Amino acid sequence: MTLSRNELIRYSRQLVIPELGPVGQEKLKAAKVAVIGAGGLGTLVLGYLAGAGAGEIGVFDFGPLELSNLHRQLIYRTGDIGKLKTELAKQRLLEINPDIKVNANEGILTAENIRGALEGYDYIADCTDNFITRAAINKACLELGKTYVYGAVYQFEGQLAVFDPRGGPCLGCLVPDVESMENQACAEAGVMGPAAGAVASMQALEVLKLILGFENLKGKFAMLDFRLADFTVIELKKREDCPACGAKARLDKRFINSLAVEFITPEELKARLDCAGLPRVLDLRYAWEHDLAHIKGDAWVDFDELIKNGAGFQPDDELVVYCKGQSKSTTAFRALREKGFKNIYVLKGGIDAWAEKIEKGMLRY
Ligand SMILES: [Zn+2]
Fold first, then answer.
1. Are 221 and 270 members of one domain?
2. The total number of structural domains that make up the chain
3. 242 counts as catalytic
4. 323 has catalytic annotation
């Protein structure tokens, strides 16, 4: 794989780094990287990988761009709101670098499709915001023998790790109790844009270093507190009792079975609400968001209580859960499925989609 004159000029600022050079650049050109999540972390990881010349990039996400994404997801534009993020990201990356290949993969990764989705890639960057998907990525990477770069951001804090399935500790070794983490959906827990940017930059750098064979964070876990630029790196140990890679790996049913989410569209919900026998519609957002705008006839429920004990609802109840987008509602769907709730649906696109498609005069925020 030789480099064209144009490529030599495009990458000249990194080519002059002695450890990289044309040989390193050719490694980058041959590399295939999957980036899961095209949000606060993913967009910037994607941008840096495209800029650096990673030869083939897979973008994995679902749903449209929302106004509230723009404070941190810098590859998108205000005029793009409502369009699919995967398609937007593909278009933008090819504008950054037309010499690379970009695959837009629209849709939720599930236990059924995740292996097939990732097997064509050499490296996986986990830029998601929920622990169930992370656990599924971890399992797929263990099975496929792929190195996995994990990034997470919460308010002013970040986390970074590189998991090598060939003998190294995995995500399950770091967080054996996935249920304790399940409720943390960063998209709705708040994040400072530059904190996401800082973690994303470091995450992209780890991917590039892996491709180039440079020293990297393999087997280590970095805790980043951006309030005082306080960074701590610890060595991870493989746990014998790890639920994913340990001797008695359960490859947790919890990790896997509850991945496929059942959606109801705003149009379908409207039709159901107009008829008799309507489902209970539950607003999972914060109370102040409920006060701003909500779906008529719904009920506000405490998200944490619903996840923990079902908030008084019974497994036979027909429930539609919604939040601003789909993050909290998807988490609730999975938690309730674990508790045996069968008739639960996630409002596709959340209240934003409802306001766009059904109740056009509704206050948007
Ligand atoms: Zn493990």
1. no
2. 2
3. no
4. yes
